[in-house]
User: What shape does this take?
Amino acid sequence: MNNRQTSINRQGFAYRLKRTLGKLIVVLGVVVLLTIGIIWAQNLILARQVQTVTAQAGSLQVPVPIQAWAANTEQVISAPFAGSLTEIIGQGLRVAKEGSIAKLTTPGGEGQIIFAPVAGAVSYNVDGLEGILTPQHLAQWSLSKFNNLTAAPPPGNSLHSGEAVCKIVDNLEPTSLLFDLPQPGRTLAVGDRVALRLDDQVVRGRVSKIAAQGPQNGVVVVLDDFLEPSLDERRLALKLLENKPPQGEIIPVVALSGTQGNQGVFVLADGIVTWQPVQVLAKVASNACVSGLKAGAAVITTPTAVHSGEIVASNP
Assistant: This one.
């Protein structure tokens, strides 16, 4: 009887043990599945946040804004008598030597054709600076002297005797520019080639003179060609371009993180996030040129969403 009772007790214990182990296995399985699900969900959320771009080898131009005086070879045509002016050659058009420019009519109705003494582009926007703002004076005068110049308004169509009818600009000769070099770190020397941007146009020329004037550094540049806007505009807003812009890898500015002097980016390789220190060479608008980064690297543009060592998926 005792042996039988002992056997029954043993069977009951084994049964209860199996049930307990079964419950533990189920609980452990649920915990593992939940853990996997949480990790998967976290990675899924993080993957949606992580954006990457490919670092491209290249350079960035950092243009220096300048205000330049423009001068051309030009000749003023004066009215031989008082009268009303009628244009024959339109504004900006080129006229041949001895070609008809305009007609001047007296109050009594007598008219006279005005002929061109030289060939060139015709401009009726005469401002009184024609004999002052010349290529020769750009090379001789100080920049401060030009900055004190004041242009006169055009005389209009009713002219007094001796007033300017128009000016003829030699648009086959190169335009000369005079400007201050505002960037202390940028130096130019006589003979240097320079590139300048005017709106979407890039023009090139050569430095013909450097004339220091107090804190200013007057630079005279003779362009390779005639600059069309200088036909009527004396002052031009230009951007001086670098001859040798910094070379590196181009990335978005938003990808940079860290503090000044200790900047870097997060790079994604094989699903692992790593921190890569970089040196910022230049910034233009939304892009940065950096060194210390390999071309083709997948750079994370959401640096606040990751930290080094994380395993994530990219979302280019």
In short: The radius of gyration is 38 Å. The chain has two domains: 50-62+245-305, 64-241.
